[in-house]
């Protein structure tokens, strides 16, 4: 026999397990808040901008293909910035106990579309160290690119600056707690329906009809034992008094 579940049954289940669902949401929010505020280490971000000054002749400026060549050159610079040739020297100058691979994971290089500006962004647990890494990376690249590619067209446009009261970019406690609330609600709803599915007890006459597959002919009313005993006692008392 095919079983169907109505919207009323769904809402009844949710209403019945509302306490469980709410508890799961609150528990998830609490765990996310504790982890975000007390466990995870804050990460700070800073960035510096490098300007690539292209020296073009009068004839080359009339050729549109040079635009694409310039962008490819900037992409090449982006790769060189994160190469061991630059990062090993950055680590040595700052006295960092980090390999080029470790520094690479902290640095992000991006270029704006059709722009000659390269953004070097650094994320670190220490905001002052993030600024030092960003500025030193830009300075080392500006110096080393002259020997690597025999060019002198790079300059630091905007160095990184340490703010008086820097704010971490990660973790985001509010976002984490909001996500945890959604996950907690979904988990609570799932557990509520699972418990309802595993509950095979018969609660009403409709359950009897559904399980046995036969119509219900009658219902025995509950016997009020206390009321009946009280009434019988009063009747016996009246008879003895009469």
TrEMBL record:
Keyword Transmembrane helix attributed: yes
Transmembrane segments: 20-44, 174-195
Pfam families on file: GNVR, Wzz
Main location: membrane
Residue span, Polysaccharide chain length determinant N-terminal domain: 3-94
Subcellular location: Cell membrane
Origin superkingdom: Bacteria
This protein's UniProt keywords: Cell membrane, Membrane, Transmembrane, Transmembrane helix
UniProt GO MF annotations: protein tyrosine kinase activity
Claim: tRNA processing is one of the keywords in the record: no
Membrane topology of this protein: Multi-pass membrane protein
Cellular component terms per the entry's GO annotation: plasma membrane
Occurrences of domain Tyrosine-protein kinase G-rich (ranges): 143-194
Family note: Belongs to the CpsC/CapA family.
Protein name: Capsular polysaccharide biosynthesis protein
Source species of the chain: Planococcus koreensis
């Amino acid at each position: 026999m095919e079983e169907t579940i109505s919207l009323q049954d769904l809402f009844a289940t949710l209403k019945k397990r509302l306490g469980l669902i709410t508890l799961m949401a609150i528990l998830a929010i609490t765990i996310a808040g504790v982890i975000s505020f007390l466990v995870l280490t804050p990460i700070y971000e800073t960035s510096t901008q490098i300007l690539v000054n292209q020296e073009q002749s009068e004839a080359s400026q009339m050729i549109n293909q040079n635009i694409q060549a310039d962008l490819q050159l900037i992409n090449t610079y982006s790769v060189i910035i994160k190469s061991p040739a630059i990062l090993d020297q950055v680590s040595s100058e700052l006295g960092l106990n980090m390999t080029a691979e470790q520094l690479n994971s902290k640095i992000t290089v991006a270029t704006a579309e059709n722009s000659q500006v390269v953004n070097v962004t650094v994320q670190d647990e220490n905001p002052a160290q993030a600024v030092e890494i960003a500025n030193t990376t830009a300075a080392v690249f500006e110096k080393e690119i002259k020997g690597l590619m025999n060019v002198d067209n790079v300059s630091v446009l905007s160095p990184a600056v340490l703010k008086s009261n820097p704010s971490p970019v990660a973790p985001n406690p509010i976002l984490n707690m909001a996500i945890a609330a959604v996950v907690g609600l979904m988990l609570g709803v799932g557990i509520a329906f699972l418990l309802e599915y595993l509950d095979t007890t018969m609660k009403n006459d409709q359950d009897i009809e559904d399980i046995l597959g036969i119509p219900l002919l009658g219902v025995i009313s509950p016997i009020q034992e206390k009321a009946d005993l009280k009434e019988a006692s009063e009747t016996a008392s009246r008879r003895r008094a009469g």
